Amino acid sequence: MQAAFLVAPEGIEQVELTRPWQAVTDASGGPTLVSTRTGKVQAFNHLDKADTFPVDLTVDEATAADFDGLVLPGGVANPDALRLDERAVAFVKSFFDAGKPVAAICHAPWTLIEADVVRGRTLTSWPSLRTDLRNAGATWVDEQVQICTSGPNTLITSRKPADLEAFCAAFISEFSH
After folding, report:
1. pLDDT tens per residue across all 177 residues of the chain
2. In angstroms, what CA-CA distances link 68 with 30, 48, 54?
3. Bridge partners of residue 31, in order along the sequence
4. What are phi and psi of 158, to 5 degrees?
5. Active site residue 107
6. 152, 3, 156: which is closest to 66 by C-alpha?
7. Distance CA 69, CA 98 (A)
8. Which residues are in the DJ-1/PfpI domain (predicted)?
9. Are 118 and 87 in contact (CB under 8 A)?
């Protein structure tokens, strides 16, 4: 199982990167950190700087064909920056176009909204995205994990770090197919 983790250069909620990354590793998979720039990305523990992580590939070097699925960690600043980067948005959309599973947690659905891939889908997220998702044509639910198959791919979403165990189990199961 090869999983792409798309993040901005800073603002990633660290636990929403490291726990899913560890889940992929524990499942004998290969996680790859993809970002909009080379070098290292800066993770955060909520609003406090945490660790940095080396970028494996940029969005210009990576393609959906190279991966079994895409993981979008949250953090407020991370998806907000990604949705402003046309290359990142195109990378996300390419997984939907290829029918490959995508897993997004917390604020990450902001990038999905920008890619125009949530219309007609059922998602969960951090509660403050509820109106944004509804305005983009999605149905929002307040659940630990939501698995939506009513589209070109399977879309797995979760609300927050407390949901990580269910989130990781759901996307690992889907990516392993």
Report:
1. 999 999 999 999 999 999 999 999 999 999 999 999 999 999 999 999 999 999 999 999 999 999 999 999 999 999 999 999 999 999 999 999 999 999 999 999 999 999 999 999 999 999 999 999 999 999 999 999 999 999 999 999 999 999 999 999 999 999 998
2. 10, 32, 21
3. 3
4. -140, 165
5. yes
6. 3
7. 10
8. 2-173
9. no
Q: Which residue out of 107, 121, 159, 160 is catalytically annotated? A: 107
Written as six digits, the tokens of 116 are: 């125009």
User: H-type helices in the chain, by residue range?
Assistant: 14-26, 77-82, 86-97, 109-114, 130-135, 164-175
Sign of the CA dihedral running 62, 22, 110, 50: negative
Cα 154 to Cα 151: distance, rounded to the nearest angstrom: 7
Q: Could you tell me if 34 and 56 are in contact, meaning their C-beta atoms sit under 8 angstroms apart?
A: yes
> Distance between CA 96 and CA 69 in Å, rounded?
10
Q: Which of these, 120, 117, 111, lies nearest to 5 by C-alpha position?
A: 111
